[in-house]
User: What shape does this take?
Amino acid sequence: LSEADIEEYIKRGISDMPLRTIRNFFSGIIPAKLVAAVSDKAGISNERKLRDVDERKLFEIGKIIKNYSADITDTAGIKEAQVCTGGVLLSEINPKTMEHVKIKGLFFAGEIVDVDGPCGGYNLQWAWSSGAVAGMNV
Assistant: This one.
């Protein structure tokens, strides 16, 4: 999102969702744990409601989000990974059957396919939907 997109998101939130907390509101675009770090940096409790915070302060949070940087010093390894990319290319799969376009009888579904999306259960829906399509065509 551009800084202008974030500001527009904030303006809509103020008018449409004034009772949402900063934590709940901004976790729509960044992880909740990061909302805590960003709101701390802005000097605002993430439990405050949007209506109780000056618009300029909310825009400040937006600027912090847009320009946030962190030094990654370690990982928990692939076994703890939440996001991995890669897999069988969509161009190699018939989307109507989930069958490989060159290897008849070879079907794919779920995370084996190179499909990425936002967090929030979308990967589960993709797994179920693509699995159902593949299963109906085996």
User: Anything to note?
Assistant: Residues 110 and 127 are 4 Å apart (CA to CA). The first strand starts at residue 93 and ends at 94. The chain has five helices and two strands.
